[in-house]
Here is the input.
Amino acid sequence: MGMTHQNRVLTKMREQYSHLAPTLQLAAKYVIDHPADFGIDPIRTTAEKIGVSTYSLVRLSKELGFPGFEEFRDPFRRALRATSKPIISSNWLDELSAQGAAGSTLANSAENSMSIIKQSLRQMTPEISEQFVTTLTNARTVYVTATSTSYAMAYYFQHIARLILPNVQFIPRDMANPIVDMNFANEDDVLLALTVHPYSQITVNACKFARQRGMKLLIITDSQLPLSELEPDAVLTAEMESPYVFACYLGVMAILESLLHLLVIAGGDQAAANIKSYRHLKAKVDGTSPF
Here is the structure.
């Protein structure tokens, strides 16, 4: 029941988000994006991370119909206990942490990496994943777009996905604006966009254009709220927290790998044959032995 109750609270926050005061929106966004941290941290720590007062968190609790902060946080604590099985034994992390400054940094990085992957895949529910796969496989053309660091992730996804779905295109093709490549798109097509904070305006504009054309819109991002006005058909959200100054893309990569796995399964024998054919052709062209 822990996860169910937590999901109800998250749904309620998303529904009421646009009606909240700016400070409460800031707090609500943090809770939605970091449910695990919210379930662990005391109120003062949470307030410091968000940059608001503890009173704001109490106000948010009451706006959502809870008597106080503890009642508001309780569903998140219960959900955390329900999913707190360790991914891997922590013994090696303890040993690594004891090996000087470099070992301590590596242990911290490893622990953060595992946490990011776990939290990202927890949010990749079967319902949303199936919606992604169904939408992609039924499309006439799938356009994949992104900018900056997300560009590399999107290119990787398209490179593998085209073996399963030959109608997958990466845009922009010639370093122009992706909108140009969707000039002939219509309601039979899909745009899959990758964008994380600070949310590329080029990608956002491409999403808006896709909506104007009646295309279906799928988004992989780090928070559902800032892009909610685009009214995407489905969203997959990745955890991006990092112990260093740049965001960590492991969560995005884990989501993309899982999505590719689901597409391969959905593609059945034909997908397997396509991948096998590609491997043999690549081996022949590159002059290496097929594997």
Summary: The longest helix spans residues 250-286.
